[in-house]
Amino acid sequence: MEKTEYNYDIVRSFVNWSIVWGVVAVLVGVIVSFQMVEPGLNFAPYLTFGRLRPIHTNAGIYGWGVGVIFATFLYIVQRLCKTRLWSDGLAKFQLWFFNATIIASAVTLLLGYTTSKEYHEMEWPIDVMVVILWVAFAVNIIMTIIKRREEHMYISLWYMMASLIGVAILYLTNSAAMPVSLFKSYSAYAGTNDANVHWWFAHNAVAMALTAPPLAMFYYFLPKSTGVPIYSHRLSIIAFWSLIFMYLWTGAHHLLWTPVPDWIQTLAMAFSVMLIAPSWGSVFNGYLSMGGQWHQMRENYLVKFLIVGITFYGMQTLQGPMQAVRTFSAFIHYTDWIPAHIHMGTMGWVSMISFASIYFLIPRVYGRQLYSIPLANLQFWLILVGQLIWSFSLWIAGVLQAGMWNAMNPDGSLTYTFLETMVEMYPYWWVRAGGGLIYFAGILVFIYNLYMTVQKGESVPSAAAFAEGRA
Amino acid sequence: MDLASILYLGVTIGLFAVFALIVIRTYSKKRKERGEIAKYRMLDDD
Q: Are A390 and A254 in contact (CB under 8 A)?
């Protein structure tokens, strides 16, 4: 069969830039965690918690998360379709427009321009940039799939297409706004409707940007790393369609006990609980794929990242539905429990899969063996321990906080003032900041290992051919 | 039941039917082998 020449230049570039934005996201995260315990570290007006926090979240989601999506999708689509990208020029445009969009977002957020919608803070000109960027990406991936030379479509391609379509619908709907100046706009929706549309967007951004793409990566990189196929392709298809049918109904669980109509809240609650089934369909598929291969957890560092990553996904998708139940939500919503939940997903699930994907890609697209497997193992333990410290400290803090908020005296007055509950949080916030530092140390080890791989890693002739896109 | 409720019910039943058809098709005995080919094919190339 004629060898296909793949475009790995673009994969290399996206991997490198996603790491840059990942470092920014984690570094700013560590800074804001210290700002919470040491208010003197806030330097008004630009370097305050209020301005840096959205930079942390947006750099994390759109710089690191989406950057890795771009890198891995552009790689996976070529390999699974056995054909080169539809347009190299469009991919290059996408790379530089991606960086321009992230930089414009960071600068405007630092200057204080914000829509005040969480995870969608950027003002309308940047919304336009995001739409152009996503269309360029989607067209290239879909056209590559259309011209594929492999008849059968592996499950990763399904998740990729869902992500492309899902993000487009969500982003366009939630971006609807009336601009009144270059950096100010007002939402097209009013009051409760605005909140409902926004949390429909925000929760499904988790679905279409932070669930479907990592699942595409997991389903691709796990069998590639173990050398054995997934347990059941048909199970993966059913889990995929179940996820697609159910996820888009769950956003209103962010608005339990609010003026949003009760039936919408109940609908969101019910679908959130049902979502356990497709989520665990993928988790079980991952575990069962390891049948007879569990020894690779000791021997193969990639498998370690991937299986612990899917385990975090499993935990995340049990905890999430639990939080979406009204009674439990009444207790923990608005407490520190929630960021602990989110960070188990981002630092555990999404990033573990992303690290594994990059470890898989770098030797192949640069044609060099990984510089140090012990360093990769060290990074694994640093980010695992850092993440667990991070989340456990805030889970405990969240329960304490909820307990104090709900405590009442016999006469019905509140036992604690809000300030008293804040003071109780400080020890946990210190521990959380420490966990963040350990995680950041893991990121530095990761970068050093990759840098040394590119600079000094042993060149492998077959891998070199692979790197040139001839394999 | 007003028109909007009937429409919601219709969409719900329609979506459920589509989902049921996907499950039946995916797990039909006739398609068993074909449904699993992709997981082997993806291991071919690297």
A: no
Nearest CA in chain B to A227: B43
Q: Which residues, including other chains, have CB under 8 Å from residue A467's CB and lie 6 or more apart? A: A8, A364, A365, A366, A367, A368
A43 backbone dihedrals φ, ψ, rounded to 5°: -120, 100
Length of chain A: 471
- pLDDT in the model for residue A84: 96
Half-sphere exposure of B1 (CA within 13 A, CB side): 7
Q: Superfamily assignment of A2-466 in CATH?
A: Cytochrome c oxidase-like, subunit I domain (1.20.210.10)
The answer, for A270 touching chain B at a CB cutoff of 8 Å, is no
Q: Does A230 touch chain B (CB under 8 A)?
A: yes
Q: Which of A56, A52, A37 is nearest to A342 (CA)?
A: A56
CB A457 within 8 A of CB A372: no
Question: What are the chain A neighbours of B22 within 8 Å (beta carbons)?
Answer: 237-238, 241
The whole model's pTM is what? 0.95
Of B27, B42, B45, the CB nearest to A234: B27
Q: Is B43 on the interface with A (CB under 8 A)?
A: yes
Interface test with B, best of A1, A84, A228, A237 (most B CBs within 10 A): A237
Q: Would you say how long chain B is, in residues?
A: 46
Q: Is B28 on the interface with A (CB under 8 A)?
A: no
CA distance A32 to A53: 7
The CA distance from A201 to A280, in Å, is: 23
Closest CB to B38 among A233, A238, A245: A233
pLDDT of residue B44: 87
Q: Which residues of B touch A79 (CB under 8 A)?
A: 42, 45-46
Which amino acid, residue A130?
V
Predicted local confidence at residue B45, as pLDDT: 66
B46 near A CB under 8 A:
yes
Beta-carbon contacts below 8 Å between A and B: 58
In one letter, which amino acid is B34? R
pLDDT at position A239 is 97
pLDDT lower than 50: segments of chain A: 471
Do the chains contact at B41 and A150, CB–CB below 8 Å?
A: yes
Do residues A423 and A376 lie in contact, with contact meaning Cβ atoms separated by under 8 Å? no
pLDDT value of position A458: 86
Domain ranges, ordered by start, for chain A: 2-466
Query: Residue A154 is nearest to which of B15, B38, B46, comparing CB atoms?
Result: B38
Could you report the predicted ipTM of this complex, rounded to two decimals?
0.91
pLDDT tens for A31-67 read 999 999 999 999 999 999 999 999 999 999 999 999 9
Q: Annotate A413-435 with three-state secondary structure.
A: CECCCHHHHHHHHHHHHHHHHHH
Tell me the per-residue pLDDT of A137-151, one tens digit each, with 9 for 90 and over. Answer: 999 999 999 999 999
Residue A61's closest CA among A29, A93, A31, A30? Answer: A29
